[in-house]
Amino acid sequence: MDRSKAPEKSKQRPGIGWAVFRRVKPFGAVGAILAFVLWAHFGSGLPVFHPKVVPAPGWQQFRAEYGMDAFGGDGYFIRAAQHGYNLFFFTHEHGSRFTRKTERDEVRSCSGCHTVEDLAYGFVNADRYDERLGRRVSFEERVMRCYAGPMDGFVPTLYDPAVRDLRILARGVAHHLQLGEGARKGGS
């Protein structure tokens, strides 16, 4: 038998060093991740790591008028509703990646064509059959189509905050107006 073709035995280092290193290695990775998260949240000062939404003009009045605090004075829902408000009234500033409209265009935001009540009624009447398309269309798809059509922009994904936060704004306004599923504007 030719010894040159025989498989070599794996060389293992003797001693306890490698066994300790294998046990400590995962803790080091977890420690590094934890250190980064703590730095990003508390020490970085970079706005990308903080879930703050810049209040647009009129937000406080809108918030009080439509009772947005019914879901809590702060937190995820209020930040998302505020971002939805910013997108709805100031699309050209807060959703510029989804629209080619600028300050010079007459209709440059969602509010140029719709009211927040229209948005709420659209929310409670979502997921209805559209005869023109021949299928059911969700609220999110209608928002995406609006970005692509009248706003002359790019279509966001279904999970983009620009779509999600408009839905949350519509939900808050529908809650304030006490709209149920299928409610029609101007009556039952």
Q: What is the overall number of helices?
A: 7
| N-to-C series of helices and strands | HHHHHEEHH
**Span from first to last CA?**
93 Å
What is the topology, as strand order, of the major beta sheet?
1-2
Structural class: mainly alpha
Q: Specify Rg, calculated over alpha carbons.
A: 26 Å
Helix content: 40-55%
What is the approximate shape?
globular
What is the secondary structure topology, with strand pairs?
Layout: H1 17-43, H2 59-65, H3 76-89, H4 91-94, H5 116-124, E1 128-130, E2 135-137, H6 139-148, H7 161-176
Antiparallel strand pairs: 1-2
Helix pairs in contact: 3-7, 5-7, 6-7
In short:
The protein is mainly alpha-helical and 188 residues long. It is 46% helix and 3% strand.
Structural account:
The protein has 188 residues and is mainly alpha-helical. The chain has seven helices and two strands; from the N terminus they run αααααββαα. The chain has a two-stranded antiparallel sheet. A hairpin with a 4-residue loop joins β1 and β2. The longest helix is centred in the N-terminal third of the chain and has 27 residues, at 17-43.
